[in-house]
Design a protein that fits this description.
- There is one protein chain.
- This protein is of the alpha/beta class.
- It folds into two domains: 94 residues, Elongation Factor Tu (Ef-tu), domain 3; 112 residues, Nucleotide-binding domain of ferredoxin-NADP reductase (FNR) module (Rossmann fold).
- It contains seven helices and 17 strands.
- It has a seven-stranded antiparallel sheet. It has a seven-stranded mixed sheet with strand order 11-10-9-8-12-13-16, with helices on both faces.
- It is globular, with a radius of gyration of 18 Å.
- It starts with a strand and ends with a strand.
- Bound molecules: flavin-adenine dinucleotide (FAD).
């Protein structure tokens, strides 16, 4: 079930020059949101930009009835969003997405995130930790300036590895390489990932090779967010007779079994 609400902006933090954390008063969404779901946000009352912008849920506080999301200013829509002030209301549809992260109990899991794809992984890690799973987190960023949420992820991880492509912070190289080293040494029950497409392709391949179940969250460009426009199609890796070859990120995802989609 998704709702359309006007949510008052309660928290506004600028984490980086182009990255903002917003917290909104949205008890009805907080009550039902699941890790991996997203919001469709109307950034302006005017006709332009017309389409809502999809942004993942970063953190849910059920007690206080708040929902937090983090976004990078990319174009017109997110620029307008970043100008909203505390106390103003934001028109939100959510929580959206039928494919959500499986929250496993008492398992050893790995979470792989890259860049802005790390944001939906916090709510996931928090929920896994609450279910007594051992949470090993690997986050990759371009460079030191791009590293975000290190302290926050530390709080919900048993082990946190930060990597940077240029070696300016943490372990030099890609986060997936660190995860692979651990996979070679020890058994990991499940992998979760969200990040740039090349990273998701690589983790999909690795999880198949190592035979470890894996869920990936796809942040494909989408328009309506409701399964109407079919703009966010991804090809399924296998289809039954008379079945569509495509799945839709907004309706069937954004989280998929890595084996199920061809990326
Ligand atoms: C399910 C889902 C969850 C998302 N969660 C988050 C999140 O938590 N935080 C966050 O910062 N962003 C997230 N995104 C991406 C975010 O929706 C876009 O960055 C945003 O819609 C851009 O709007 P804009 O008007 O600012 O830019 P536009 O003017 O629409 O686009 C500006 C530039 O960004 C590119 N772009 C737009 N959307 C995407 C996309 N989905 N993937 C790659 N490039 C894109 C465009 O091609 C263009 O080059 C998510 C996307 C999806 C589909």
């Amino acid at each position: 079930m998704s709702l359309n609400i006007k949510a008052k902006l309660l928290i506004k933090e600028q984490l980086k020059p182009d990255i903002f954390k917003f917290g909104v008063d949205a008890r009805k969404i907080a009550d039902i949101a699941k890790p991996g779901q997203f919001l469709e946000i109307r950034v302006s009352d005017s006709i332009v930009p017309f389409l809502r912008r999809p942004i993942s849920i970063y953190n849910v506080d059920r007690q206080n009835g708040t929902v937090e999301f983090i976004f990078q200013v990319k174009g017109e829509g997110t620029k307008i969003l970043s100008k909203i002030d505390i106390g103003q209301e934001i028109d939100i549809v959510g929580p959206l997405g039928n494919g959500t992260f499986d929250i496993l109990e008492n398992k050893k899991v790995a979470i792989l995130g890259g860049g802005i794809g790390t944001f939906p992984l916090y709510e996931l890690a928090k929920n896994l930790k609450n279910k007594s799973s051992e949470v090993n987190i690997y986050l990759g960023f371009r460079n030191k300036d791009a590293v975000v949420l290190e302290q926050e992820f530390k709080m919900v991880a048993n082990n946190l590895t930060i990597t940077t492509d240029d070696g300016s912070y943490g372990v030099p190289g890609f986060a997936i390489n660190e995860l692979k080293k651990d996979l070679d040494k020890e058994k990991i029950d499940f992998i979760y990932a969200c990040g740039p497409l090349p990273m998701l392709k690589a983790i999909r391949q690795l999880s198949i090779e190592k035979n470890v179940p894996c869920q990936i969250s796809l942040e494909e460009r989408m328009a309506c967010g409701l399964g109407v426009c079919l703009g966010c199609a991804v090809r399924k890796s296998e289809t039954k007779k008379d079945e569509s070859q495509y799945a839709y990120v907004c309706k069937n995802g954004p989280v998929f079994d890595a084996k199920y989609v061809e990326i």
